[in-house]
Amino acid sequence: MDYLYLIIGFVILLSSGDLLVKGGVALSSHFKISTLVVGVTVISFGTSAPELFVSLGAALSGSPDIAIGNVVGSNISNIALVLGFTAILLPLPVKSNSLKFDWPVMMGASLLFVAFAQNNLIETWEGIVFLILLVAFMIFTVMKSRGNESEEFKKPKQSIFMAIVLIVLASVGLYFGADLLVGAAKNIARGYGVSERVIALTLVAFGTSVPELATSVIAALKKEMDISVGNIIGSNIFNILGVLGLSSVVKNIFVSNDVLNFDLIWMLAISFLLFLLVLPIKKAKLHRWKGFVLVLVYTIYIFFIFAQ
């Protein structure tokens, strides 16, 4: 039965990803905000809903390895697997704004996460700092976009109300689809005696990253490249500042030495690798061979996780 739930979960996630892209594109046109900003904010929040609910639930139920592993594993798979696979399907041009502002914010949030985790604990006050930084990032991003008068906007295909309805429906679908997929994956993995940390970093992280995968692939196929890249960077920012921030405000989260000395290093390294792969900034693009490199790095990471 768990294998059937896996398939149903994937179908729901793919359908919801399509709705999220449609709603996001319509909103960007109505409010004269670039699709990149919509990808970094509205869409990334929607696709990060599964991570939020999984980590919150894990923190409250006393499973810190799942709460932390879900965030770290999702950030790794978002870049190395999701963005890599999307680039293999269709090379992705990357706007300079993503590299000059969004990527530094993502890297800064990642480094702050590592700094806060040095005492093996993410405490309430640190979670509050994360949430304040998230709000500041959101406000600055939207204001910066509204000040750009040079961008042309397509005529929206949906009304504002319908766009919001699509985003809400998509977010609900992403949550339930991810819940089905993650639950089934965890049951299957436990049947093979896999540890909670490994389950969180691999199956749970992959399951909660499937919304990003579905949304990014569909956005790329619809030629909305800014949403593909912006969605991933925005999701990684939201995972740390929003998901981890809110979870640690609710309850202090323990960070194991394995996560601190291995997984967080991989997260930082893969984030930096993304920057190197899209250079030079003026002609930034993720070519197919770069997508293969990212997927290969993800495969190596998973190998080491299970080898441990």
Distinctive features:
A middle domain of Talin 1; 4 strands; globular; 11 helices; single chain; 308 residues
Task: Look at the structure and give the CATH class.
Answer: Mainly Alpha
Outline type? globular
Name the helicity range: over 70%
The CATH architecture can be named as Up-down Bundle
Main sheet: strand order: 1-4
Helical stretch tally: 11
CATH superfamily: NCX, central ion-binding region
Structural class assignment: mainly alpha
- Quote the beta fraction: under 5%
Number of strands: 4
Query: What's the number of domains?
Result: 1
- The Cα radius of gyration reads 18 Å
The profile of the biggest β sheet is: 2 strands, antiparallel
Q: Determine the mean pLDDT.
A: 80
Could you give the order of the helices and strands? HHHHEHEHHHHEHEH
Straight-line N-to-C gap: 30 Å
Pfam family, one: Na_Ca_ex
Subcellular location: Membrane
Keywords: Membrane, Transmembrane, Transmembrane helix
Domain Sodium/calcium exchanger membrane region: 3-142, 163-306
